[in-house]
Amino acid sequence: MGPIADDAFFIPSSVRAAVSIRNATEDPRIAETVIERMVSSEPMVAAALLRLANSAAYRRAEPAESVSTAIMMLGMAEVRAVASQVAMLQLVRGIRGRAARLVAESLLLHSISISLFAAELARASPELGCGRVGTLGLFHEMPTFHMLAGSNHDPERFDSLEAIGEMVKTVRLRSFELLMQDLGLPSLAVPRVDESELIDRAHAYVTHPNPLSMHPDEAGDRSAIAPERAVMLQAAAEAAYVTLMEGPIPQSLREIEIDVDPASPAAPPTTVPETDQALPRQVSRRGLLSRLQNLLVGIFGAD
Fold first, then answer.
1. Mean per-residue pLDDT over the chain, rounded
2. Which helix (H) or strand (E) holds 91?
3. What is the pLDDT, as a whole number, of residue 239?
4. I need a labelling partner for 211 at 20 to 30 A (CA). Which of 15, 146, 237, 267 fits?
5. pLDDT at 8 over 70
6. φ and ψ at residue 34, rounded to 5 degrees
7. By C-alpha distance, which of 9, 12, 10 is closest to 42?
8. Eight-state DSSP code of residue 220
9. 248: helix, coil or strand?
């Protein structure tokens, strides 16, 4: 069986656009109006931000009907997180094999959970940036996502969950450092030791583990985060995942007008690779989303 590590990793332009938005939020030289324009020209990022701004966790008296209002309400940290999540979602949607896609979707929920718990653990360490640690947690399974993307080129190797499980044990995965450089995130390519330790510790709290392998810290110490806070974080992760995967594009998004200089080159169209037509239609999770939003209302609305 040949290695996966050296296989080409196709990164859609929409992923690079989302990563560009994420990187722009970290650059103090880039004005907020520029970031607003970047978000508005990427429908998936804009839609995800509007859904988040109008979700139970952030709902205000007046709904957020524009990207500028959503950014003002959420702040750059949330814009950065959403752009990162959309980049991951686009990578998942680029995986065409049926079994590989199912694993990737489960792994995305796991990664979002790790991201939130790792960021929470980082708050206790002033020398660490919780936003950076959260982003590292979100991308920590990139080598596995890269392996699953190999199903587009060699579907027979990924024809069942059992085959994928065995492959994880035998193939040589591409390094995290190289993949982050491929994605345009070189500043995250080499995490600090203490950052990696927090990401490992976060595995003790998630209720959606890696579907392919058990992390040794899944049975680790859970005393650093209060149980009620852990419940809130997991609910937030599940709500973010459901909204990201299946939430409808708000009607207001279609009404956004972008003031573009006619002399400026048009932004490249955002495309999503076609997926395997044999994939089963997902069962609607609207009921789950409603329950999660109600739970978040109770948590965030409690005095």
1. 80
2. helix 76-93
3. 86
4. 15
5. no
6. -70, -40
7. 12
8. S
9. coil
Closest CA to 27 of 67, 84, 76, 71: 76
Q: Which residue has the higher pLDDT, 236 or 270?
A: 236
Burial class from Cβ neighbours inside 10 Å (0-12, 13-18, 19+) for residue 95 reads buried
Domains of the chain, CATH where assigned:
13-270 (1.10.3210.10)
pLDDT in tens, 81-119: 999 999 999 899 889 889 999 999 999 999 999 999 999
Confidence of residue 264 (pLDDT cuts 50, 70, 90): very low
pLDDT over 80 (residue 293): no
Q: Which two tokens stand for residue 204?
A: 């003790």
- CB pairs under 8 A, 24+ apart, for 122-128? 122/195, 122/198, 124/224, 125/194, 125/198, 128/192, 128/194, 128/195, 128/198
Structure-block tokens of residue 232:
């809130």
Q: C-alpha distances in angstroms, 248 versus 69, 72, 157?
A: 19, 22, 34
> Three-class SS of residue 131?
helix
* CA 41 to each of CA 13, 92, 254, 269: distance values in angstroms, whole numbers, following the listed order: 13, 21, 11, 9
DSSP for 199-218, written as a single string = HHHHTTT-SS--SS---GGG
